[in-house]
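Q: I have 214 residues here and want to know how they pack in 3D. Can you give me a structure?
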Amino acid sequence: MRDTKRKILEAAIHLFNTKGLPNVKLQHIADYCGVSVGNLAYHYRTKDILLKTIDRQIQDDIETIVSSQKDFPYLIDFDNQLSNYFYYINKYAFYFLDVLELERCYPQLQEHRVLSITKMMAQIRKWIDLNVNNQIIKQQISEDQYETTTRIVWMTISFWMTQQKVLGKKGSDEGLFKEDVWNLIVPLLTENGLLEYEAIILPQLANLKNAISQ
């Protein structure tokens, strides 16, 4: 029974990601799984119930990402966290692509989404503040500069896949994703921060490029 439920969940996430949340019905999920819609309904009577189960999984995953790096003072820690976020936004692509559908039709999921956003932004801001204290990131030049930076970094992470779709680009390039985020951070780095970036982060980005080109 557990295997069937897991199979249904995985199929639902895949179809939501590829076809869009509003376009998928229980029958589509049942067909993809190779089970009857009655068997599927035995486990998840409605699409809403199925989505609530997936939502709990999504919230558990974001909690794991955030809690795994409570204190991450180095640039490489942030780079590793970007890898975690890249995996997350690809695993649950519909959660980032079908934002308006979630807001309009699934208000409880949207509430949970706002909570997860708050956690992400709090972690990003904490990382910036730690690196200001460590003289890796410059002091802010206005009172709310890094509040704005935090929001822009979060937007770049969360809507990176959306802008790829809008631009008609296919595939998912982790190296490009990371470059887009790091390009927001690099102008804020001190001389010491730039040395750390050039010594540690640039080789990581180059390795990703090489892996994709091979």
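Q: Anything worth noting?
A: The chain has a mean pLDDT of 91. The longest helix spans residues 107-133.
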